[in-house]
Amino acid sequence: MKAWLGMLLLVGLIDASVASSAGGDSFSQWKAAQQRAFQDQMTRRQQLFRNMLSEDWTAVTAEPGQVRDPLPKPFSPPVKDGGKKPLAVPLADDMPEVITDPVPLLPQQGKALVFLGHSLLAPEWEWATVSDYDSPKGLVRGYERLTATRYQDTVRWLREQRQGLALGDWGLWKLVQAVSESGHSTDGMQATVRQWFLLSELGWDVRLGYRQSKVVLLARTAQPVYGLAYYPVDGLAYYDLADVISAGESLLIHGQVSDSQPVDFAFYRHPVTVPDLQERQLRHGDELLSLEFDRELVRYYQGHPTVDLAFYFAAPLSEPVAQSLRASWARLEGRYTRPLDKLNALMRLVQFGLPYETDQEQFGREYYQLPDELLFHPAADCEDRSIFLVQALRLLLKVNAVGLLYPGHVAVAVDMPGEGDRQTVGRSAWLVADPTYIGALAGQTMPAFVGVIPEVIGAPVAGRWSSITSGGAGG
């Protein structure tokens, strides 16, 4: 606040001096004095960044998005010999209500922002717009004007919300985007530049690329992101998280001046929501699980970049899912005496209680679902079922379980006694459990993968569970 008032006083003194002076060079003197005052307000990092924007731009061509598994999944899951057919995807009239964002999603100047069910009041942030961001000079002018605003209040507020709402990098990214898209202008290019500026001030490694009338925000991530085009810059991948560019498209991209951090998209914890609970039942015969999930978390994770499967297997269960799982399982558990019987019961509930559809059918792209999302959306494929089963087994049966990654398929392995097929996990052989092989019991491998050695996802390392098998930790 004092720095801002000091700047205003300094500018006022300069204006007064100019008004009282005479001569043909009075305007150039006034302009030079203003520039010196402005430079005094910029941090050393901002000055370096501005200078870089003036001269350090490189033409780079986008690479196509990475594909985790190019093999297509089956359009229907196999059924064990003589088994009952799986549950069909419900008809449109019977499908769950389509999730829509609360209104208003984005804040207006001085009005509350609805985020995770909370009403948040962001500081007012005045900025002077620039009309031509599609050139280095325009971007430099935009950056200078943004550094001269009271952006510090907004950055401080964003950090406070991050701590108070337990936001991961994904949540903070979404909140920055919402703040950037609010205010006097709804111009997408201006919002992109504001978002880039705030993310840079928060310490993230983000860059702008431009070509003609297009400005694109690019981010370096802590782990590979699948399905999104990226730009290789200085040996690092910068992703178009908004998915507005195509492979082969060239942009001029600016350099970097500091040790900024990548955006981390792992699921360390879920944010604090005002819960919007909904129930879903998983049923097989007279076996029933009545589960609650949080629609606010489904909204929150919409659009989350697809990262390595290991991050989804390592993600914690949300409190509504975990609590309802415990309570519902407590009413069933007494029926079964052996751990193996309990495992088979949970497998049946997933096999028969969830309709099957591929991601391409349901989402139009490869997309891995966390349990709240799985319980909301009509159907689930092999990855989604396996993620849910592993987390349920760890919670309810207190057993070690991991994912098994086959070509074109994902299943589960469990550290449990029992007859049947096993896969090597660390130094042990764990029992195969496939929630997509309809009617199969633990120890029965899907016929197409008998004899295939899968990759283990989330193996125990040195007495603890590793969060990942490849890539970085993140978001």
Structural commentary:
- With 475 residues, the chain is of the alpha+beta class.
- It has helices at 2-20, 26-41, 44-55, 136-147, 151-164, 169-180, 188-201, 295-301, 309-314, 319-330, 339-353, 359-362, 371-376, 382-396, and strands at residues 57-61, 112-115, 118-121, 206-211, 214-220, 230-233, 236-239, 250-254, 277-284, 287-294, 401-406, 409-414, 422-425, 428-433, 455-457, 460-461, 464-465.
- The protein has a six-stranded antiparallel β-sheet.
- Strand 2 (112-115) and strand 3 form a beta hairpin.
- The longest helix is centred in the N-terminal third of the chain and has 19 residues, at 2-20.
- It is elongated.
- The chain starts with a helix and ends in a 10-residue tail after the last strand.
- 40% of the residues are buried.
- The model is unreliable at 1-23, 90-98, 100-110 and 459-475 (pLDDT under 50).
Helix content: 25-40%
Q: Give the overall shape, derived from the CA principal axes.
A: elongated
Mean pLDDT: 83
The number of distinct helices, counting runs of at least 4 residues, comes to 14
For the sheet with most strands, the description reads: 6 strands, antiparallel
Q: Proportion of β residues?
A: 15-25%
Low-confidence runs of at least 5 consecutive residues: 1-23, 90-98, 100-110, 459-475
N→C terminal distance: 33 Å
Structural class: alpha+beta
Radius of gyration: 27 Å
Number of distinct beta strands = 17
The quaternary state of the protein chains shown equals single chain
